[in-house]
Amino acid sequence: MNKVTIEVNSREGNIEAKKLKKQGKVPAVVYGKETKTMPIEIKVKDIEKTVKTLSEGAILITLKLTDKKEEKTVVIQEVQRDPKTDEILHADFHQISDKEKSTFHVPVFSTGSAEGVKMGGTLEHSLRELTVKCFPKDLPAKFEVDVSALNIGDDITIESLTVPEGVEILEGRDRVLFAVVAHKVEEEKPAEEAAVEGEEAKEPERIGEKKEEGEGEGEEAKETKKEKK
């Protein structure tokens, strides 16, 4: 289990985000069963670093409210970013209790190189995180799955996972985590071949078929024949 400690301050709800931004901070909020919704302010560099750590595995965060001299154990519930600049605009933290089980999201990673991929197959990563229920002390940082033995057509399901004691996975045991599938490539026909097929699609000329008199002849040829008669 990964743990991170961040120093924050409570804030008045009417403080503008622009003002906080000038101070290198963003607005955030903490909520949960054991606390009233509490607006806080957090340094941009701290939340960015924490989000980056989160991509490497589940983490528990200790928020140290310096102005109130208290601590809260939380997890990141949501981070809002600017769609244009990707800057963090706001963060939601959910407080959890050490005395009861909570729901967490734990990432799933692969290790090794699948045999089927070496043979031309493609490794599909179907589930990138699992929802688990456990006490905070039992929270695994991540699940690692060795895919080395997978051949084309093979897969690994949740049932194959080694799950730590006290941790319950909420997804079905038959859900596929990783699979190696055949690499399908749709071959495009050469332009020459396509042209030939196009010609074949037309009605072929009937060689040797007797034409009716005058058929295919110009008007001058027809008039000449009439004069000779």
Give the overall pLDDT as a whole number.
84
Which residues sit in consecutive blocks of at least 5 with pLDDT less than 50?
201-217, 224-229
CATH-derived architecture of the largest domain: Beta Barrel
- Biggest beta sheet attributes: 6 strands, mixed, barrel
> Count of DSSP helices?
5
Radius of gyration, CA atoms, in whole angstroms:
35 Å
Q: Any idea of the CATH topology of the largest domain?
A: Ribosomal Protein L25, Chain P
Global outline: elongated
| Class inferred from helices and paired strands | alpha+beta
Describe this structure in words.
By secondary structure, the chain is α+β, with helices and mostly antiparallel strands. The chain has two domains: 2-96, Beta Barrel (Ribosomal Protein L25, Chain P), CATH 2.40.240.10; 103-181, RNA Polymerase Alpha Subunit, Chain A, domain 2. It has five helices and 13 strands. The protein has helices at residues 17-22, 44-54, 115-118, 191-201, 219-228; strands at 2-10, 25-32, 35-43, 59-65, 70-81, 88-95, 102-111, 122-125, 129-134, 143-146, 155-157, 168-169, 176-181. The strands form three sheets. A six-stranded mixed β-barrel has the order 1-3-2-6-5-4. A four-stranded mixed sheet has the order 10-7-9-12, with no helix packed on it. It is elongated. Residues 201-217 and 224-229 have low confidence and may be disordered.
